Amino acid sequence: MSATPSANDVLDPEVEVLALPDVAQRLGLPVTKVRQALRDGQLVAVRRDGVLCVPAEFLSDDGAIVKGLPGTITVLADAGFTPDEMVRWLFTADESLPGRPVDALRATGAREVKRRAQALAL
C-alpha cells in the first residue's frame, strides 16, 4: 500500500480540519476509501500536529466531496502544483472570483475556479 499524500499545514489555524475517521463518517465511507480518495487526487490532506486531516470546507453540507474539487486538484497537479501549493491556492483570497477558490467551489463556481487554475499552468 502506498503512503497517503499530504501537504504541510499551510492553513490559518482557524481553518477547521477533520481527522480521517471524521471525514469517513461524514462521507459515509470507511477510512480506507478516504485514503484512496486522497491517493486518487479527489481530496488533499494536511498534517496538523502530526495528524492527517482534511479541511472541513472540502466537504459539502450533504455529506459529499465538494463538487468540482477533484477536477480542480487534477488541473493544479497537471500545472505542477505541490500539495502545499494546492492547499495554499485554494485558501487564498482572489479578488477576481471574489473570495477564496474553495468558497467559489462551495458556491457552485467550479467552472470559473478550474478556469483560473488552468490559467496558472500557462
Can you walk me through this structure?
The chain is of the alpha+beta class. The protein has one domain (7-120). The chain contains six helices and four strands; from the N terminus they run E-E-H-H-E-E-H-H-H-H. The chain has a four-stranded mixed sheet with strand order 1-3-4-2. Strand 3 (46-48) and strand 4 form a beta hairpin. Helix 3 runs parallel beside helix 6. The radius of gyration is 13 Å and the shape is globular. The N and C termini lie far apart (34 Å).
Give a concise summary:
By secondary structure, the chain is of the alpha+beta class. It contains six helices and four strands.
| Average pLDDT | 91
Rg (C-alpha, Å)? 13 Å
What is the terminal separation in angstroms?
34 Å
Order of helices and strands: EEHHEEHHHH
- Secondary structure: number of strands: 4
Helicity range: 40-55%
Count of individual domains: 1
| Beta-strand percentage range | 5-15%
Low-confidence segments, given as residue ranges, are: none
Looking at the structure, what is the overall shape?
A: globular
Biggest sheet strand order reads: 1-3-4-2
Q: What class would the helix/strand composition place it in?
A: alpha+beta
Give me the number of helical elements: 6
Profile the largest sheet. 4 strands, mixed
Characteristics:
122 residues, alpha+beta, 4-stranded mixed β-sheet
List the helices and strands and how they pair.
Layout: E1 7-8, E2 17-19, H1 20-27, H2 31-39, E3 46-48, E4 51-55, H3 69-78, H4 83-90, H5 101-106, H6 110-120
Parallel strand pairs: 1-3
Antiparallel strand pairs: 2-4, 3-4
Helix pairs in contact: 1-2, 3-6
